[in-house]
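Two folds, back to back.
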Amino acid sequence: MSGKYDVSAGRKFLYYGGMALMAVGFVLFISIFFTAIGEMARPGFGPGLGTRFGTVTRPGLGAVDPGASLMLRAVTGMLLVIAGGAMRAVGAKGLAGSGLVLSPKKAREDLEPWARMTGGLVDDALSEVDALKRPKEAPARQVAVKVRCRECGTLNDETAKFCGECGKRL
């Protein structure tokens, strides 16, 4: 069942692009902790001993504040994670489905693949319930014809030549 209910290529691009942005943002954000741990391991780190909290002169860059660099990476990483999450939501649910466009009709179209999937899952689950399965066709009921013995009155099968009780010919 492909084609009509598939998610468009643009929405797939938004979804996977959002995932990539979130990954880059997470790496940027986490990198500040590794940088801070690395700085603490350097000799001379401590209150008033190093130049960690002041400006540092770097060749070609001049005076640089390392704390500002860490803060910029952290904020940029968080913004990328937030933007990536928004992109993923729009990619998964569409503009109307994610609530950015107020149109119930368009939202229904955007969410159609997920609604179909949910209905398919419900159908699959219901097909597993024995009580809801169609009852098997009962074999056609056969009419049993019995023959009554004239001597003793016992009922015998119609194919019997002699009575099963008294042995007289039927």
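---
second:
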Amino acid sequence: MEKIAFIGFGEVNTPRDIIVRKCKAAEEALLAEGLDIVSVYPVTDDYEEKDIAVACLKLDGTDPDCLVICIAGWIPTHAVVKITEKYRHLPMVLWGLCGWMEDGRLVTTADQAGTTALRKTFRDLGYTFTYIYDVIGSPSNSGRVASYARAASAARRLRSDRVGMAGYRDMNLYGTLCDGNSLKREIGPEIETFEMLEMQQRYERVTAEEKAEVIASAMSRWQFLRPAARESMEKAAGYYLAVRSMINERGYKAISLKDVDGMKKLLGFPPAPVFMLLSDCAGVSTIPENDCLGSVTQLIVRELTNQCGAYLEFYEFFKDSVLAGVPDYIPAEVTDGPTTVMPAAFGELSEGILNVSKVKTGTVTMCRLFYEDGRYFMHVVKGEGKTPPRWEEAGWTQPAPQLPGLQVFLSDVGDFAEKVTCQHYIISYGDNTQIIRDLCGILHIGIV
């Protein structure tokens, strides 16, 4: 649960009961949003600074994810800064409350006098913050405050998140690489590579009974359009258990495997069912082809939305939409109906278990983290995902499988195409653009 420090301010000459009433209403609205709150109010500019001392004492040792600076009336700047300076390393919300209507007249405590005096001061002091204000006659902006708090909490968790990656730079791609030092410094996650040899060694220690248990408990729930070879199912279960053992030991939240030049070429086994089991049973985000920043984008989406952050890649652009699909698998979380699979072969690759499930439709947010000229950026766009017409990728054994995909309708396909940064984008359901923007603001990631 996101933990915030809520500090309510009002000028010493404003009736104390009014400031307390307004702060309490704001606090209760944030509690209703599900936040864990340490509160102190009212803090005034009393001459002896007793309120400031009480606030500092109460906040000491609380270790919040962010500060909510709630301005319930006019407050001289110094009374706020004397507290915020001790927490300048934390993200903050500068939240201005508002007045009210009474007997046909507007009554104000000059909330926005306080916020407008503070906004540029916060910027000049180098604080990481967002500025939110309420408006008379409109609902409270507590939801926006809570969204920023969740983004701040997510940014904190990212500092210790880890990705496990078997191999590196599948197919010698450029767009899937990353710079580990800047990634750790600017965003936080660690990408730990492990050799496929270690995975293979662990696979060889998996017993027939352990494989059978996975087949019976997990793979038996899949809907097979045609029976798959028992050997293929046992390989999928065995490699899943091998990788899961590393996840359990090392705490990985996301996994990527060397796909085309790794498992397919060296082990003769397309890893689609392994990814499915890792996502659906081990609860980690998955992406193929050693896509480093794709994995980190998945971590960001998971921390912000609690969704797995499935990957899709682009096949075609149309005037008003893009065809985004996958040639291998989708997690059960984004599947519309049962997980549907079939044995299939592509080109010279060995036959594997291919996912041909339908993808859930609806409003989707597509995003991708990328690095350019020494800075990280996030390309984020909202669209409407609909079931595409029947399509196939040339090269599959006929009759070609209907691959999972969405036709995503965008407001401006041309603009998207001009900014697209990779073949892999991460999707989440709903309009998550604002909370992604909040996180990017906290981590100083540019928005495209």
